Amino acid sequence: MAVAFNRDKPHCNIGTIGHVDHGKTSLATAITIVSSELSDGAVKVKNYDEIDSAPEEKARGITIQTAHVEFISKKRHYALVDCPGHVDYIKNMITGASQTDGLILVVSGVDGVMPQTREHVLLAKQVGVPSIIVCINKIDQADPELLELIEMEVRELLTKYDFPGDTVPIIRCSALKAINGDSDAKKGILELMDAIDDYIPQPTRV
């Protein structure tokens, strides 16, 4: 029997941004899986189709409207906004991102920094998002040497737009493998959740 959802922990709003198909929605699913295990089932697992739920989203294969997912970490209760990645829906991303206390920038370990990666970081700066943490996703499909170059490129991009690129945590993950039950991949998701706890400041609510 699932335990009750404990919302007594400090609350924080975060979002995912990044290029289309780099794995933002899969990451959101993976986080709910790991959080559900961490909370003895209090957190409901949200599968990909539940997050990416509107008919037009499924038809086009991209996330159009922002979707909200709840999860808890070791320290906090979170509302995660799965922001649209497709270029046509950047205005939706701004609306979603401006409501957040911090963002997870998802970058494919196969493709690296792409045009929307840059656009989303710029927009995050323009709307005043205070903190960004980075997830290099799809590491199971990536060349390890390429991952080092991608990390350097991401840090340079963040620095360019006045985020602390030299010190931003960059966590390597495979959301898909975590969804499929791989224990090492789940550890990567948990490492990301811990980094979010530690790096994104607790907001002061009015």
UniProtKB/TrEMBL annotation:
Pfam families: GTP_EFTU (PF00009). Residues 9-204 form the Tr-type G domain. Gene3D superfamilies: P-loop containing nucleotide triphosphate hydrolases (3.40.50.300). InterPro entries: EF-Tu_GTP-bd, EF-Tu_GTPase, G_TR_CS, P-loop_NTPase, Small_GTP-bd, T_Tr_GTP-bd_dom. One of its GO terms (molecular function) is GTP binding. It comes from the Bacteria. This is Small GTP-binding domain protein. The lineage of its organism: Bacteria, Pseudomonadati, Pseudomonadota, Alphaproteobacteria, Rickettsiales.
